[in-house]
Specification:
The structure is a single chain. By secondary structure, the protein is of the alpha/beta class. It has four helices and five strands; from the N terminus they run E-E-H-E-H-E-H-E-H. Helix 1 runs parallel beside helix 2. About 17% of the residues have low confidence.
């Protein structure tokens, strides 16, 4: 299975919101790194996580269980986890386990961020703060990718 790289971007106009871009598989070899990175993001104060899963081809049961526990732990803090661009193979597993109703799933990062704004969690009175496609990015400068596992 491929290694896993994780990039973390704080959303500059939505405090407490972080975009996590995943690339690879979440399997027995990489799940500890996945858990460690997301726990670190939560400990830094992020209560709303947007997980870009466009390049995730596989998630094992331990990875899914961790996401459920993480979601439960931040939901009590008025937070949430949004999954974005979930691959069909992973989506089938989410559907079979009934997790498609547990997690909010979006087609694009922009759609997920807009929904966070309209949910009243941050800045709902100013939806123009969301940068439109082609006009730049609401995410800060892209950090260096983490070391592969």
């Amino acid at each position: 299975m491929p290694e896993l790289t994780i990039q973390v971007h704080d959303v500059t106009d939505q405090p407490g919101t972080t975009l996590v871009t995943l690339n690879g598989s979440i399997d027995a070899k990489t799940v500890i790194t996945f858990q460690t990175h997301l726990n670190t993001v939560k400990e830094r104060g992020a209560s709303r996580l947007v997980l870009d899963m466009e390049n995730v081809k596989y998630v094992n049961s331990t990875g899914l269980g961790f996401l459920i526990n993480l979601s439960d732990s931040i939901s009590s803090d008025r937070g949430e986890i949004a999954l974005v661009k979930v691959q069909p193979r992973v989506k089938v597993v989410l559907d079979m386990l009934g997790l498609n109703s547990f997690f909010k799933i979006y087609s694009t990062c922009e759609e997920a961020l807009k929904q966070l704004l309209t949910d009243g969690t941050v800045g709902a009175d100013d939806p123009t703060r969301l940068v439109r496609r082609g006009e730049g990015s609401p995410f800060g400068a892209a950090p260096e990718p983490s070391a592969p596992v």
